[in-house]
Amino acid sequence: MTRFLLICLGGAAGTGARYLTALWAAATFGPAFPAGTLAVNVIGSFLVAFLMHVGSATELLPPDVRLMLTTGVMGGFTTYSTFNYETMSYFREGAWLIGAANIAATLLGCLAAGMAGLALARVVVGR
């Protein structure tokens, strides 16, 4: 039951952070491209890779904390379902180039961020 509550608490924090990031991105970059969704997916990919490596390669993150941060916070923060919906909307509207750009930027950005998170985690924990 404790893990469940930690995950729920983390999810609430992640969801709030996602909302604030989306507001910031819309104000900064405008509504034409889903920059907020891209930002949370890239940041989330980096942080999940970092946290999972630190948590599995060291004893710095106890299992309950790792679950709260990854399943809870990052689960509430990342928005692949929103990514999918926004991309399908572009395609339905005939905006094929923007839809394809969203797919490419998200996939490549998240892969690069995941690799960067893993590399940083290895530097930080030395493994």
Question: Can you put this structure into words, describing what you see?
Answer:
By secondary structure, the protein is mainly α. It has one domain. Helix content is 86%, strand content 0%. Helix 1 runs antiparallel to helix 2 and helix 4 packs antiparallel against helix 5. It is globular.
Put the structure in a nutshell.
The chain has 5 helices and no strands. With 127 residues, it is mainly α.
Element-level helix/strand string: HHHHH
Provide the helix percentage: over 70%
Globular, elongated, flat, extended or rod-shaped: what is the shape?
A: globular
Characterize the main sheet.
Answer: none
Query: What structural category arises from helix and sheet content?
Result: mainly alpha
Number of helices: 5
**Average predicted local confidence, pLDDT:** 94
- Low-pLDDT stretches are none
User: How many E strands?
Assistant: 0
Tell me the count of domains: 1
Task: Break the fold down into its secondary structure elements and pairings.
Elements lengths: L1 H28 L5 H23 L5 H15 L2 H13 L3 H30 L2
Helix pairs in contact: 1-2, 1-3, 2-3, 2-5, 4-5
List keywords for this structure.
127 residues, mainly alpha, 5 helices, 86% helix, globular
